[in-house]
Amino acid sequence: MSVWGRNNLKLSIFGESHGSEIGVVIDGLPAGEHIDIDELKLFCARRAPGNSTTSTKRREPDIPKILSGMLDGKTTGAPLCAMIQNNDTHSQDYNNLKKVARPGHADYTAYLRYNGANDVRGSGHFSGRLTAPLVIAGGIAKQLLRNRGVEIGAHIFSVQNTKDDVFDAVSITAKQLLEVQKKDFAVLNDESGEMMIQQIETAAKQLDSLGGVVECCAVGFPAGIGSPMFDGIENVLSSILFGIPAVKGVEFGAGFKASKMAGSENNDPYCIKDGKICTETNNHGGILGGISSGMPIIMRVAFKPTPSISQPQKTINFIEQEECELIVKGRHDPCIVPRAVPCVEAAVAFALLSYLV
Amino acid sequence: MSVWGRNNLKLSIFGESHGSEIGVVIDGLPAGEHIDIDELKLFCARRAPGNSTTSTKRREPDIPKILSGMLDGKTTGAPLCAMIQNNDTHSQDYNNLKKVARPGHADYTAYLRYNGANDVRGSGHFSGRLTAPLVIAGGIAKQLLRNRGVEIGAHIFSVQNTKDDVFDAVSITAKQLLEVQKKDFAVLNDESGEMMIQQIETAAKQLDSLGGVVECCAVGFPAGIGSPMFDGIENVLSSILFGIPAVKGVEFGAGFKASKMAGSENNDPYCIKDGKICTETNNHGGILGGISSGMPIIMRVAFKPTPSISQPQKTINFIEQEECELIVKGRHDPCIVPRAVPCVEAAVAFALLSYLV
Amino acid sequence: MSVWGRNNLKLSIFGESHGSEIGVVIDGLPAGEHIDIDELKLFCARRAPGNSTTSTKRREPDIPKILSGMLDGKTTGAPLCAMIQNNDTHSQDYNNLKKVARPGHADYTAYLRYNGANDVRGSGHFSGRLTAPLVIAGGIAKQLLRNRGVEIGAHIFSVQNTKDDVFDAVSITAKQLLEVQKKDFAVLNDESGEMMIQQIETAAKQLDSLGGVVECCAVGFPAGIGSPMFDGIENVLSSILFGIPAVKGVEFGAGFKASKMAGSENNDPYCIKDGKICTETNNHGGILGGISSGMPIIMRVAFKPTPSISQPQKTINFIEQEECELIVKGRHDPCIVPRAVPCVEAAVAFALLSYLV
Amino acid sequence: MSVWGRNNLKLSIFGESHGSEIGVVIDGLPAGEHIDIDELKLFCARRAPGNSTTSTKRREPDIPKILSGMLDGKTTGAPLCAMIQNNDTHSQDYNNLKKVARPGHADYTAYLRYNGANDVRGSGHFSGRLTAPLVIAGGIAKQLLRNRGVEIGAHIFSVQNTKDDVFDAVSITAKQLLEVQKKDFAVLNDESGEMMIQQIETAAKQLDSLGGVVECCAVGFPAGIGSPMFDGIENVLSSILFGIPAVKGVEFGAGFKASKMAGSENNDPYCIKDGKICTETNNHGGILGGISSGMPIIMRVAFKPTPSISQPQKTINFIEQEECELIVKGRHDPCIVPRAVPCVEAAVAFALLSYLV
Predict the structure, then answer these.
(1) Do A105 and B289 touch (CB under 8 A)?
(2) Which residues does UniProt assign to the signal peptide (chains A, B, C, D) (predicted)?
């Protein structure tokens, strides 16, 4: 299912990497909301391929076209459909994927799931390219959230072992979140960024790839939103975040680190600052009992290294049921983490918006 | 919402920590499935409090009573309602929670969410006690999965910094999963377990608490089940796992470690073993593109330390809007991780069953 | 599935006719709402059996017991579970239903659906008795709606060919809706009611049964609520109304009669009355494009005659696959329509509430 | 919401009457299913406007274009997006709809719902034109159902007071259902059809419109599918059927007529015919307890007369809050029932398919 939804807000993503178009239908957007298309394009451009040495050489302008749900720059309340043309496709690169599984990819599991009828060109519907419609949906959600006082931003927390600085979980501001989004390489500390870029370039030269972690934050989200058990903010965010290909872990607040702390360390003392109830630390990541506390909502999302590498790899031909060697061709990101930053923002924005409309 | 569901299988949990009963309605169980009530009671007993030095002193036998949906030991196809009596409640312990927030608890967020109308006694519906109905649902699901060749087991992966051995992600067997479930303290390596127990006892003496990580595994789950994007196994499992109170992170396969690996390391080479397609390593945790690969499904779930500690803590009175100090009374687990093991198994079992019925 | 829900409001019904208890879990009720239990009991009593010559001789007090989700007379925001004991069960009446299908009942279809594992005693989960938990949920919903200015009422529109007066679709008031609810036999015109009662008694003497139609109305529901296509008020109401056993048709406003009208007759002219936009007639039943217009919401629900009749009937033994004759034993309503009135109100109330919370 | 779904099968419709495109995303179609595009076009042509004297003069070829989810004539398992271009739009016809409500239309309710931001041109997303994407989805569903032995067909049961013959509810065959679909005017009795056409033409000349009823039937649907209470076939079908604009009533089997029958008449005696369990009559419409019996599934759907008529009508200017007179311009069907026939088939097909995939 490429449908995600909560209550009154739903999205339905369609398309394949090498089909003619990819897109998304968003249902439940409130009517009369102004959407700044230029800003939306800028947001989509942050994810678009071909911008730098760290990403695939596939060139796609990725200009979203709005087919419905908008009139005179405003939402009409009807479902909004947005589409992107696929242009730069090299489908001949994928001819042997109908029988030989790329390690780390979904070729074999998709073959089983769809009895071999799935479109394998460019990984078909499994392609990271399908995050482009998600980014459209999230870009629109971000604008609606901003009108409601909520700002969402993310940065590259780490690539391999190189870490960026971290968001200040207590005092991060909307302005800081906006600043990092303007950078070509979304890090807080540009020196760390330089190191990451070098590592990615080195990996690329070695016909290898790297993974990393994206940290995302929402500020201004009202306190008292969410529910215990299964409709909590953590449940809802993780249910959409794992929809981004290559995500293998999600944590909130102190996350896995909290498992190593004592209660006396992990518990965030409450205090009153400028007449407002806050916590002195933010190990809870802005969520307690599934409900927002008013503190910044913070999470980290782990991405595995791009599975497409051009080194020879041991694998199988699942049609012939025999082992073989494979060299993956095609154009790929040596590290998807830089382009994953707006994808994470988009998923978080869409999910959080579902609580407010 | 305390409703969770996928397609034909849904659960609805109700009750408060100090109400008369807690329970669950499960809708969509296939008809004619034999449920072994004794085995179900044993599974519930693994979660029940009061069994050891590492858990709360509250004594609850937690015997589930089946009110509907079963006849002559078999499911009827109608909704199954199971209930547990609350007996050993000390509600006077919670009198000041209507105004003073326990750090790390949902008292303040619940107050905002429910305008102060929520039942605060024993944390009400936010209590870890509400995992008892989840465990009933999961215990039933485990039995149905076993009839379908799927076995689920979990162990205490770590408490604070002390680690247990890990599941062999490639060759773990149903038998091994069953063995660890029989232990009083669910670790693979009993020496590690002893150390963990000591650490927990020490923390308890210091009026403190500890967190930890639970590792869970499913073997025998058929390959080719799941979907890309939002109905993938990772999405679905995380959406229910974050429903267990105190969970702050979920990762699959190599998880966050994958973010530090190169593609050449993280990619699991395919091979053919005994005529069956496998992978030589299992960094993908049995899931690729949201779809099962036939390898063991492996995940780790991070638990924060129990927020209830009896040390003085800085907090606020949210009615009076003033800072104050709090010493939490009541009976609490100094570390919930040991009792969380069957909760994780239960959540995973119920979610995986939803793909097979 | 005995789960129904929309957005933030869900119910899950459980139980079998001759099980120990039946009940409902309602999730998503707003917190802090006062529930008048006496009034709820009165509402449940309107559906309870054994009150008159027109209903089954089974005696059930049907007193709901609230297990969770309420404290000090108010909702807590946590799931509300309410239960009713089954007392007066004569299970031996149903012994041959495991193989012989009662015409008009679900015995045979349930046998196929559940492979014979379903509980046949008193029709099990298919029993009209399962409307008791629905009535609890609807009774609570009615109280919450009343606090929001919405009143719901229904009457017996017809039994066989005898018709009651109709609601004035334009000017019906909350007061009128409340008055008819107080009557033992819910008709507007008591003479018509007398005739209906006589017809039902006659049918009962002839070992036969009768069907009828219930008309239901909601006044005070705000204008501008609902959606086109699949989340319209008509879609939502019908999806729950067909959950009441024996319902075979649902129509809104002029309904099937509209199909015989010209546009110039059926179109309701708009006008302004007391400064408020209204329509002069109400053939649209208060709903246009799935959205409320502010006029009374009006619908009619067709009930088939009770299938349980004590005349000999031709049927089959589906185990032996042979034709046979059957005389249905047990205690049954010769006409369920009088007791269906609060069931319809309940379903409508719960569904409409889902738009307002 | 223009999203409809059950379990693994979902659709999301988008577009406005005078936008550039309208379309649908279908998620959950099984992979590897051959779709005959020519047949799909023929099915869409049955709904397309401009074919006869009884329909609107708007000319739209309505050729669906498949953007995703198909490869080499087969479904891939990924979401299928299909689109239709809007060509023949006369938007100037609708300029005053932003303030003056057409009686019987959703102009005023939509204005309230969307605060005036909705697209009013050609009724926007409320237009009957939005059934074109539904027909695409249903046309695909019909083909998949046919491969599973299920055939769906409908006819014009009545226009105003003129009735067609009825389907033989017991012995209707797939062949008969296919035959009526080939006709330009979908009636069983062509003489009745002629009368209907004359009535429609007369109404058109009088600047008026007519309503009618569509009867739909599914044969070959397996017995034992469905559920009691809220996931029954009647609930599910009605929840989608009321999504077709102008539907005001839905009934199954004997429907409202059953309310006038005695149990001894309405109960369908079971019998064995050619070794197969059947009923001698089919007042239950193939559904008992929400579950299919194996008999033809039969329903009737009431359509109100087209609200757009060119006579002067009394209405209001809702911006100025004053009464006024309106003459509706634009091109409209004097009776939508003929074109509604494939819409009903489509809705039924899609909903029934959701039980089989």
Answers:
(1) yes
(2) none
CB contact under 8 A, D109 and C279: no
DSSP B267-328: S--EEEETTEEEESS-TTTTEETTEE-SSPEEEEEEEPPPS--SSEEEEEETTTTEEEEEE-
CB contact under 8 A, D226 and C271: no
Dist. CA A102–CA B210, nearest whole Å = 42
- Is the CATH code 3.60.150.10 the one for domain C3-356? yes
CA distance C8 to A353: 15
Give the other-Cβ count within 10 Å of C32's Cβ.
Answer: 14
- Chain A neighbors of B311, CB-CB under 8 A: 264
Sign of the CA dihedral A220, A222, A223, A226?
negative
Q: Tokens 């194996």 — which residue? A: D294
Contacts of B273 in chain A (CB under 8 A): none
- Residues B115-124 have pLDDT tens digits of 999 999 989 9
User: Complex ipTM above 0.95?
Assistant: yes
Burial class (CB in 10 A: 0-12, 13-18, 19+), B248: buried
Residue D105 among known ligand-binding residues: no
- Chain C residues whose CB is inside 8 A of the B124 CB are 76, 78
For domain D3-353, say whether CATH 3.30.70.270 is its number. no
Can you give the residue ranges of every domain in chain A? 3-353
A7 touches chain C (CB under 8 A): yes
Which of A13, A249, A322 has the CB atom closest to B252's CB atom?
A: A249
Q: Which of A7, A78, A228 sits opposite C7 (nearest CB)?
A: A7
Name chain C contacts of B22, Cβ cutoff 8 Å.
68
Q: Which burial class, exposed, middle or buried, applies to C319 when counting CB atoms under 10 A from its CB (0-12, 13-18, 19+)? A: exposed
CA-CA distance, B256 to B259, in Å (whole number)?
5
DSSP A336: -
For residue C212, give the nearest of D259, D285, D306 by CB distance.
Answer: D259
Is residue D300 a contact partner of residue D255, using CB atoms and an 8 Å limit?
A: yes
pLDDT tens digit string along A186-244?
999 999 999 999 999 999 999 999 999 999 999 999 999 999 999 999 999 999 999 99
Q: How many CB pairs under 8 A join A and B?
A: 362
Q: d(Cα C340, Cα D196) in Å, to the nearest integer?
A: 38
